[in-house]
Design a protein that fits this description.
The protein is α/β, with parallel strands linked by helices. 42% of the residues lie in helices and 12% in strands. Helix 1 packs parallel to helix 3 and helix 10 crosses helix 11.
């Protein structure tokens, strides 16, 4: 399959959340089981909605299992609910879905603080276990940022590589690095080559911290694509734009169709899974697909602007 497939992250704005949380003070085993069951039911509703609307790319919320990497959650949830996870995984595979995860900004492998690194490893290992519980193969990825440089980028890279080696096999074989405002695409490509990991190209972050100035957008995407091996599945990219009046790097409420149209014109024929990082989630996916369909002639060829 070639061409751009669009997806969104974590939540569907028209459905109950699959990421209900609990306060630490209330995190009894019974409450954790209750929330996890509710989150899995909500996730199933999202997956079925996506299938009905031919959306095959979806990023799982990190909060499906509440407090999953925290010592307060001692449940062996992957065993207790093995049948439920397997059933949802079958749904994902039957519908040809590509799932991913993207742990939050506090998941840092290059920190000079051992406790922060240990917490990051625990969080990534949880995500590896989550994707494994669904029965998904390593082409379903875990995307992370490199984290801070702490004024010593070479040392941060070395710490990141050391922590990477400590990850569980399920996390390590799924790990993907993403460029951002602190680590440019050139920086991330260099680290990824050392580790043998794929790279997600984020178009918005590249605008905020550009690199490789001799390369156009299509060449940048292809440069990241060279890090993806056959077993990694389709290359993943991210697209978003700046939210008006917010701090630099804040994602917009809804998709900028003009900006996305220019992106799609440059790379839309490549076999890419594109996660739209916007607040209105599935609504922007549907708008973008309608725009792309309108720009395609009946023979399936992209019209020239």
């Amino acid at each position: 399959m070639s061409g751009l497939r669009l997806g969104y992250a974590s939540l569907n704005t028209q459905l109950p959340s699959p990421a209900r949380r609990v306060r630490l003070a209330n995190a009894t085993p019974e409450r954790l089981r209750e929330l996890l069951a509710a989150n899995l039911d909500a996730l199933e509703a999202v997956l079925r909605w996506n299938a009905e609307h031919d959306i095959r790319v979806f990023r799982l919320s990190s909060n499906i299992v509440p407090l999953a990497s925290h010592p307060a959650n001692r449940l062996r949830w992957w065993e207790e609910l093995a049948a439920r996870f397997a059933a949802l995984g079958k749904l994902m595979r039957d519908e040809g879905m590509r799932l991913s995860a993207h742990p939050g900004q506090y998941t840092v492998l290059g920190s000079p603080k051992a406790a922060v690194t240990a917490a990051g490893i625990a969080e990534l290992d949880y995500h590896g276990r989550l994707l494994t519980a669904f029965g998904l193969d390593p082409s379903h990825k875990i995307v992370i940022h490199v984290g801070g440089a702490y004024g010593e980028p070479d040392a941060a890279r070395a710490r990141f590589a050391t922590a990477y080696a400590r990850l569980s096999p399920a996390a390590r074989e799924r790990l993907v690095l993403e460029n951002d405002e602190r680590w440019s695409l050139a920086d991330v490509l260099d680290l990824a080559r050392r580790l043998g990991t794929p790279v997600v190209f984020d178009a918005f972050h590249h605008m905020l911290r550009p690199s490789l100035p001799k390369l156009g957008l299509r060449e940048l995407v292809r440069a990241a694509g060279k890090t993806w091996a056959a077993g990694d599945g389709r290359q993943e990219v991210h697209f978003s734009t700046q939210a008006a009046g917010r701090r630099p790097g804040a994602h917009s409420e809804s998709l900028d169709l003009e900006a996305f149209g220019a992106f799609a014109a440059a790379v839309g024929d490549l076999p890419l899974d594109c996660v739209l990082e916007v607040k209105d989630k599935e609504r922007s996916v549907l708008r973008a697909r309608a725009m792309l369909a309108a720009a395609t002639d009946p023979a399936g060829r992209r019209r020239r602007a």
